[in-house]
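Support request, please re-run this one:
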Amino acid sequence: MKRCVLIGLFLLVACSSPPPRVTAVQAPSQWYQMGYSDALAGKVVSDNTELAEEYGNPQIDRDNYLKGYVAGQGELCQVETIRAWAARGLAFPASCDGVAQAEQLKQQWQRAADSH
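Re-run finished. Output below.
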């Protein structure tokens, strides 16, 4: 009898599915958001001294700031967005100077600026 109960429990455990994996979605850090905002504003990437002065926090998370900055560049440094900046009379954003397609973006910005 004990043997049947043990075999039954073994089969029950072996055939059950594992609990679903819960993946924690982590909100972007404060420094990620700061980098993201700086890039979207067209700013040059700030060094740690500038960040400490601007945000009043000497504990800089440089990696997260740069990750956010790159994400902001990815959003801002698109042809249509750059053309819209030029149409509004805004200067070419400094945050797009460092992207791979910077020259093409500058050309698109100039064309849009010239047509307005």
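Residues 24 and 32 are 18 Å apart (CA to CA). The radius of gyration is 26 Å.
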